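Here we describe the complex-level prediction in full. Unlike the single-chain runs in Section 2.1, the two entities below were treated as one system.
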Amino acid sequence: MTPRKIDAQGGFTAAVMSVCQPDHGVTTVFITLPNTKIELIEPLGEGSPIAKFLERNPDGGMHHVCYEVEDIRAARNALKAAGARVLGDGEPRNGAHGKPVLFLHPKDFSGTLVEIEQR
Amino acid sequence: MTPRKIDAQGGFTAAVMSVCQPDHGVTTVFITLPNTKIELIEPLGEGSPIAKFLERNPDGGMHHVCYEVEDIRAARNALKAAGARVLGDGEPRNGAHGKPVLFLHPKDFSGTLVEIEQR
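The structure predicted for the assembly as a whole is:
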């Protein structure tokens, strides 16, 4: 962990810590803005789920967007009914915040990997 | 323009209109969520600035992120002082909302094209 302070134009101040998440194969830094969070992710260990992304995008890039939802199973069912494919076995797993998450197929969202997270 | 209503799980309702922006070479749809906006963009006309992105990413994908700032020139100067490259001549132009915007070089932001917009 490397706590640091960032002072950016616009007046926000965020405490920034890098956190190893071996269960998820990533090291994360969350930058908390007034109305959203930016997640920086770096591969951790063998077989990181983001290793392939970096092979395809050696300069890095935007990996996914995450929407908070009130009820992840209700959201999943509504999205499936609308034709979206849910990745994995369709059952929520605990994500980087320890809250249930699901990922949706990028092909169903104009090439964008979408995560939903229980609020 | 195609006004439509979207009712999504979670209770938000957004008025969705597609707007032709020939000055910017794109057609846009803005989806307004409680604390952010999602911008869908489609090339419009010859030489659209997003044509190359779609050539490289035929399935589409995330094109850029935009941060609102209180003072775009102060933000630009702070970012330049921190080593970020500003695209174009460095002077703000009016963007899709009719407000001054600037774009920053993706190589300076881990492969992410970043826009800043005057609030």
